[in-house]
Amino acid sequence: MKSLNIGIIGFGTVGTGVYNVLKSFKNIKIKKIAVKNINKKRNIENFDESLLTSNAYELANDPEIDVIVEVAGGLDPAFDLLKTAIQNGKHIVTANKELLAKKGSELFKLAKEKKVVILYEAAVAGGIPIIFPIKTILCANKINKIAAILNGTTNYILTKMAEKELSYETALKQAQELGYAETDPTGDVEGFDAAYKIAILSTISFNKKVDINKIYREGITKITSQDIKSAKELGYTIKLIAMGQLLENGEIDVRVHPMLVAKKHLLAKIDNATNSIMLSGYPVGDLVFTGAGAGAEPTASSVVGDILVLASELETTDMPLPQTVCNHNEYAKQIPIGETYNEYYIAINASNSPGVIGLIGTICGQNNINISTIMQKGINNDNTAEIVVITEKSKESDVQKALEELLKSNCIKNIDNLLRVMN
């Protein structure tokens, strides 16, 4: 296997994991590591401090470095650094999902011109192999649907809310104490992380570029203990689901939001920080990929795997892995959330007065919504009632209109939550 000189940008949890795994491969030489704080103490036995630099452009411009491994994350300065490295003829291995979702099109175009490759197995699901399988062994298939749990932090929080009946705030605090959630968890709990990942997966699965700005995104911060309990009583659990679907007319539906998932569904059984991706296509049918979606060792597994595949290819050809080259020249037509059809869970706070349930049924019927289940959760101290509705498949815009009309009634105090349902 060809010997490669590697430059690593970023030396946090993942970067350290990559370094530790690469030490056992004699044909891979780590030439330089770019860090933010060169004086930070590294808890690595026999570590050579001379490898460190605070100037990442040293790596991007070093003619002896063959591959840049970028695991720092974010857009700035990662985008300019990788652009510089590609212009200098270096191959890229990255775990940066935000960069790929927002700026991947530009980087892939430049890489194609410079005849280098960008590998990113670690960017979507940590240690789960998904990018390379879609690009290679599954390339004979027309993939038409993706349904996935792509964020370990939110899945851990929702699992603990269900198992231990914790509030969202308590479960989040526990996740932070255990290192599953950042001090500022916004990227995870508001669905940004999952949106970047489903943008990447949808692009390669449906063979058209996906605009990250057109993905409907909703996080888990509005999920209450009562929602969890109601879902459980109805035979569901709540998960943050990333979805991509190719419609019959060629348009695509890509979104991230919490869903009630039927307990019989495979994704309902994915707990704690585990990730899982379900693909449906022809002729293969349904496939499920499940495993550790984050962490130093699982992510390092994918990063180093990309490096070793690249090394083996460079031994025999100057243009490695042609199947990984991005050939998506046009953007997909993405439908807005209002045009989608779903079953819905609606939590309503209403006056405890005669005719309320009838009113809900009437307004739903006037807006083309059939109700499959309706139940009252008892009477509160202020003489209001908690009412839960499950609808049959309905158009999102019709449901939103019905909720607006319900709120105009004096007996409807609040719409506590609206969640979509997966059976």
- The top-level CATH class of the largest domain is Alpha Beta
Q: What's the count of strands?
A: 17
Low-pLDDT ranges: none
The CATH superfamily of the largest domain turns out to be Dihydrodipicolinate Reductase, domain 2
- The total of helices stands at 14
Task: Calculate the terminal CA-CA distance, rounded to whole Å.
Answer: 48 Å
Can you put this structure into words, describing what you see?
The protein is an alpha/beta fold and 423 residues long. It folds into 3 domains: 153 residues, Rossmann fold (3-Layer(aba) Sandwich), CATH 3.40.50.720; 162 residues, Dihydrodipicolinate Reductase, domain 2 (2-Layer Sandwich), CATH 3.30.360; 83 residues, 2-Layer Sandwich (Alpha-Beta Plaits), CATH 3.30.70. 34% of the residues lie in helices and 27% in strands. The protein contains 14 helices and 17 strands. The strands form 2 sheets. Strands 7, 8, 9, 10, 11, 12, 13, 14, 15, 16 and 17 form an 11-stranded mixed beta sheet that branches. Strand 14 and strand 15 form a beta hairpin. Helix 1 packs across helix 12, helix 4 packs parallel to helix 10 and helix 13 runs antiparallel to helix 14. The radius of gyration is 24 Å and the shape is elongated. The N and C termini lie far apart (48 Å). The mean pLDDT is 95.
Question: What features would you highlight for this structure?
Answer:
alpha/beta; 423 residues; Dihydrodipicolinate Reductase, domain 2; Rossmann fold; Alpha-Beta Plaits; eleven-stranded mixed sheet; six-stranded parallel sheet; 3 domains
